[in-house]
């Protein structure tokens, strides 16, 4: 890999001493804090006040009252869409601040972080556009001549629970359509990434002060798992929308099932990239390294299983070693870097534990495997290619969440499909071939929510979500907006 290690350093960010409830920054009922550690310098970057169970209860009560009063939900879709678009404008004005925070929270290099912020504003605008044309009423004539009116109504009070690896983008996936639908929202951020939600709260505070969003409609809290569970189990929360690990998703689904609460889940992935024998390696190398190592592999959609035939195995492995080995890596504040450190020391150790387990299972590290040479600070794991992986190994079945790629050999096309589908996950994937019809046919055989032919397309303005234990429901596009509506049928006589 190319190592760029300059003296560029992080700008200062402010501590957050209050919690955000109902559109205002207020004192917490407790005195709990969390430290944000910069994964490059390994030093504390900021302190943030975390919410108590009492703060959660206050936020839910405010959201319930705001929704039941109907001031926000009673506005037209067009009126709410205008506010969602204004959120996009104001987040865009904070691009520099959010870019800095993205580097601190996730470890992604500054140029990558800047792109994420631009994507986020675009997602808010895309939701606004969908909302302006979304039909909330349809009349159907029954066989008896009467009318059945089909109504779309907001799901109610939404708990939007987001992960640490892409906080600002995930806010767009959940909060933008929830607000456009007329819901009230309690946004719960991860303690490992607390500042992006705080900046979003600043935007909401401005709009509340200007009277564009009613008080109570939006709260933003940072909370640990125990406190977060009080949000999931609160009977005044109608809908839980969660992004995170499959393990946590199972827990949330189990808690919500006790009261049959509505649940939307975007969970883990172990996505396969199938390289067919006719594939042009130039096409593979143009997209696969990015598709598997985005955010240093800290992405649920990462293509972390690469399937190649015995016939082309050696050729592909050598090409991938050269490609991954040349990815610019180092100081995340250096504009030319594509890969930075992982988000924390504990996570770094977890990723290295998976690499060690793969070797114990009989696989071979052909590139990387630990800290990159020449970098003596930060929580780094170099891009790692592991050959000789069987699909029943831990490294092939569990989500590593780091820049670790498993190379798996298949016998024929049917075997490749079987290996790709032999997973509890089904979130993303790719097929590389020069025959697009063949690629499309093969894509239909893979049990996954999103799959690309000759690429690693990332477009969250169209439906995104998973099969199997990768989730329930969809985000993005009109389907993502529809997640935040209930359907009511009103029968009327002829």
Automatic annotation (TrEMBL):
Give the positions the UniProt entry annotates as the active site: 266
Keywords for this protein? Oxidoreductase
Can you give the residue ranges of the Aldehyde dehydrogenase domain?
25-490
| Matches recorded under CDD domains | ALDH_AldA-Rv0768 (cd07139)
Q: Which PROSITE patterns match?
A: ALDEHYDE_DEHYDR_GLU
Q: Which InterPro entries match?
A: Ald_DH/histidinol_DH, Ald_DH_C, Ald_DH_CS_GLU, Ald_DH_N, Aldehyde_DH_dom
Query: What superkingdom does the record give?
Result: Bacteria
Similarity-based family: Belongs to the aldehyde dehydrogenase family.
State the protein's name.
Aldehyde dehydrogenase
